[in-house]
């Protein structure tokens, strides 16, 4: 942190670094991103739509042990399954499972980086420059809460990967190559569940809003803290605060503390209070949360359209390095006719009851 611009401006009164507004930070002012902003694209049809068997028998024949970690989110597939060996049909069913369960975990995978890229190309267009189709995730033991005293981006908080893009990623896969024995866990939280946990009037209020997903704070922080990048100018994108998942058809909260700075339709003070509440809501949703303790060779595949994630801050010993691949998703949309996960469950239960009753009525005496 020593090279942060704020450290060069120490207050004579408090002896504490003075946080500079980006306009007055010479490092930020001097940076010219080499690439233009991205344009909207139409990604290929989500592979989960190609999974025609709701029981996912092809996938579960390879993974003979399936454990749901919580009711709301997270499933582990075991029993000899190797992602590197899955057929196109099995990968399609995996996409469908990830869209439903939010995140799916595998242990002891034999995938290498070219294999991971090959597998992930099945799911769409990789969200990287063609010359580098993956991102190396290096562990940071810097305390994000300390960095936040002088930088504006809450990089250690819950987020959906690059949710500020016009086409934010749908699926991400992280494979761990090096990891400490303890520390560096990742947590995910279900945006289906977070939406359901709100009251009906609050749901209706959010249904009509747009969240401002921005890369500006990340942009400023990266330049000052890391000293390299970013490749593209910062953008603010207005995405629906509640989005409809294209595969499951379910509503999901589409707000995250990592990239969302407000609501387009609200006044700033109103907006700030909603963000405060939603940060509390996200951080207190233990029933919609799952935490994974990594080992080398583990893989997690998640859906950024219905989950948020964060690495748990900490000061672990040793290296932490993983390879992440992501694919572009659709431009987020809100379909007012879509339903929440609980609403669907209730509707299906009711339908079953009606069926059972009408079945009884039809049974001859
Ligand atoms: Fe992430």
UniProtKB/TrEMBL annotation:
The keyword Oxidoreductase applies. Residues 1-18 have a biased composition (Polar residues). SUPFAM superfamilies: Clavaminate synthase-like. Residues 67-321 form the TauD/TfdA-like domain. Its cofactor is Fe(2+). The keyword RNA-binding does not apply. InterPro entries: AtsK-like, TauD-like_sf, TauD/TfdA-like. Residues 1-21, 339-365 are annotated as: Disordered. Keywords: Dioxygenase, Iron, Metal-binding, Oxidoreductase. It comes from the Eukaryota. It holds the Pfam family TauD. Residues 339-355 have a biased composition (Basic and acidic residues). Belongs to the TfdA dioxygenase family. This is TauD/TfdA-like domain-containing protein. It comes from Aspergillus lucknowensis. The lineage of its organism: Eukaryota, Fungi, Dikarya, Ascomycota, Pezizomycotina.
């Amino acid at each position: 942190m020593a090279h942060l611009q704020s450290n060069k401006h120490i207050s004579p009164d408090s002896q504490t670094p003075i946080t500079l507004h980006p306009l007055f930070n010479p490092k930020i002012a001097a940076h010219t991103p080499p690439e233009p902003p991205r344009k909207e694209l139409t990604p290929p049809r989500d592979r989960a739509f190609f999974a025609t068997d709701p029981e996912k028998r092809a996938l579960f024949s390879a993974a003979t042990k399936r454990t749901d970690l919580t009711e709301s989110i997270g499933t582990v597939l075991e029993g000899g399954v190797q992602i590197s060996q899955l057929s196109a049909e099995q990968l399609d069913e995996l996409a469908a499972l990830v869209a439903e369960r939010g995140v799916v975990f595998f242990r002891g995978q034999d995938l290498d980086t070219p294999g991971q890229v090959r597998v992930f190309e099945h799911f769409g267009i990789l969200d990287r420059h063609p010359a580098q189709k993956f991102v190396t995730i290096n562990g940071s033991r810097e305390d994000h809460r300390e960095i936040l005293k002088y930088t504006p981006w809450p990089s250690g908080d819950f987020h959906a990967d690059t949710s500020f893009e016009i086409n934010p990623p749908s699926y991400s896969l992280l494979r761990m190559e090096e990891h400490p024995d303890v520390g560096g866990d990742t947590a995910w939280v279900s945006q289906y569940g977070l939406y359901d946990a709100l009251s009906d009037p609050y749901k209706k209020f959010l249904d009509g809003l747009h969240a401002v997903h921005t890369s500006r704070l990340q942009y400023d922080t990266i330049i000052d803290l890391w000293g390299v990048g970013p490749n593209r100018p910062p953008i603010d994108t207005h995405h629906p605060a509640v989005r409809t998942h294209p595969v499951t058809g379910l509503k999901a909260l589409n707000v995250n503390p990592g990239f969302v700075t407000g609501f387009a339709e609200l006044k700033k003070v109103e907006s700030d209070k909603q963000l405060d509440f939603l940060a509390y809501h996200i951080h207190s949703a233990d029933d919609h949360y799952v935490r994974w303790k990594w080992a080398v060779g583990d893989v997690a595949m998640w859906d950024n359209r219905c989950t948020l994630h964060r690495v748990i801050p900490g000061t672990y010993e040793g290296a932490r390095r993983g390879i992440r691949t992501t694919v572009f998703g659709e431009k987020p949309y809100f379909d007012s006719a879509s339903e929440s996960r609980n609403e669907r469950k209730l509707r299906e239960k009711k339908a079953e009851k009606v069926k059972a009753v009408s079945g009884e009525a039809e049974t001859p005496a």
